[in-house]
Write a structure and sequence with these properties.
Blueprint: H1 7-17, H2 23-28, H3 34-43, H4 48-56, H5 59-67, H6 75-78, H7 83-99, H8 103-108, H9 130-149, H10 155-172, H11 177-190, H12 194-202, H13 204-219, H14 228-231, H15 236-245, H16 250-263, H17 267-274
């Protein structure tokens, strides 16, 4: 299922795409290599069909650029002290896997496909820090694409998911509905397999409880009080109206309910507790 990208995230990515980066200066400073720059320029600010052709003809090179190889570091690791470069590469990486679907399985074939990215999730405790936000978006897209491409469980994906879920839970616990919607949409993209849903459920204190709190707010219910929503007495209309008054928009409400519906596919494991 495909959802429109969250407005805030989309705006952030567009702003970063438009930023001028002094690439030659970054090469002179040793932030990136000359080869890195050549690879970046070959796919940056070009037509999608040109980008697709360039990457498909040399997927291994772009795997090395983003993830590193035995001969060198990932461009993200090399540019660790340059936040502007990291942000730009994260947006470009997301564009690459969206525009070149065959790149995602190539990246996931790497011995350590998440190594350059997972540390960036803890780059800052500020929920509005662009680097963790952009990292989570890339990882959600990459893992989701991998789930679509292969029906086989991927141990490295299953190791990375709890860390990604933990970061996204910090967004759902925030008071910013825009950040909450980013997290909930990324949850939805990730919950495509039995394994991902089971891991989500194992972390339910962090993953599901904040979603229930969002529903309580939407219904106008206090967390510690009984609500007609939970006893079946509230109509969808009354919940929607309360949600608008409680600061929970219709889009966020829909996405939360979508995630809970996706979890229902594991009814044998979680059905009774979810009720």
């Amino acid at each position: 299922m495909s959802l429109d990208p969250p407005t805030y995230l989309n705006s952030l990515q567009n702003n970063i795409r438009a930023r001028p980066i002094p690439w030659e200066g970054a090469v002179r400073a040793g932030t990136i290599t000359d080869n890195d720059l050549k690879r970046i320029k070959a796919v940056d600010k070009v037509r999608k069909d040109q980008r697709r052709q360039t990457v498909e003809e040399d997927k291994e090179t772009y795997k090395s650029l983003l993830l590193g190889s035995g001969q060198g570091k990932s461009v993200l690791e090399s540019a660790a002290k340059r936040a502007d470069v990291i942000q730009y590469i994260l947006v470009l990486a997301s564009d690459l896997i969206n525009d070149v679907p065959s790149l995602a399985p190539t990246l996931l074939d790497h011995p350590s496909p998440f190594k350059p990215f997972l540390p960036l999730l803890s780059h800052s405790t500020n929920p509005e820090d662009p680097i963790p936000l952009l990292t989570s978006s890339f990882l959600a897209n990459l893992i989701s694409a991998g789930q679509t491409d292969s029906s086989k469980p991927n141990p490295q994906v299953n190791d990375a998911l709890p860390k990604l879920y933990s970061y996204l839970s910090t967004l759902t616990k925030s008071q910013d509905s825009g950040l909450q919607d980013i997290a909930v949409q990324e949850y939805s993209a990730l919950l495509r397999t039995k394994e991902s849903r089971e891991l989500f459920w194992k972390q339910r204190q962090d993953t599901i409880n904040p979603l229930i709190d969002i529903l309580r707010t939407a219904a106008g219910a206090d967390r510690d009080s009984d609500s007609t929503m939970w006893s079946g007495g509230a109509s969808i209309r009354s919940a929607t109206e309360a949600g608008l008054n409680g600061g929970v928009g219709l889009q966020l409400l829909y996405h939360v309910l979508l995630v809970l519906w996706q979890l229902s596919f594991e009814g044998t494991l979680i059905g009774k507790d979810l009720e």
